[in-house]
Amino acid sequence: MITGNRKKRIEKIINDNLDPIYLDVIDDSKSHQGHYQAPDSGESHYNVTIISKVFIGKNRLERERIVHSLLKKEFNNGLHALSLKLSHN
Asked: What's the CATH code of the domain at 17?
C-alpha cells in the first residue's frame, strides 16, 4: 500500500488530466474510523468536487467513470470511497 500524501496525489492526477476550473479534495477518513473495512491508517475516504470542461456533454455516470478510471491506482492501494460532485460549470 502506498501511504502518505494521497490527497496531493489525487489533486495532481485530477489537475493533470481534467484541467479543472475548480477542485476541492477533502480527506473525510476520520469520519469513517471504526467502520467496516475502513483502515485505521486513514487516507481512505474523500469528498471531491470538480468543475471541468472535460465533463461537457457527459452524464453523471460517465463523469464518475472518468474520475474512477484516473484514480484506479489509488483504489488499488487503499482508497476505499469517493463522494463526488462533478460539473462543467
From this structure: 3.30.300.90
- What are the tens digits of pLDDT across the range 44-78? 889 999 999 999 999 999 999 999 999 999 999 88
For the question of whether the overall pTM of this predicted structure is more than 0.85, the answer is no
Question: 62, 30 in Cβ contact below 8 A?
Answer: no
- 17 CA to centre of own chain: 13
Number of domains the chain is built from? 1
User: How large is the C-alpha radius of gyration of the chain?
Assistant: 13
Which residue range forms the structural domain that includes residue 77?
6-22+42-87
DSSP string, 2-58: --S-HHHHHHHHHHHHH--SEEEEEE-GGGGTTSTT--TT---EEEEEEE-GGGTT-
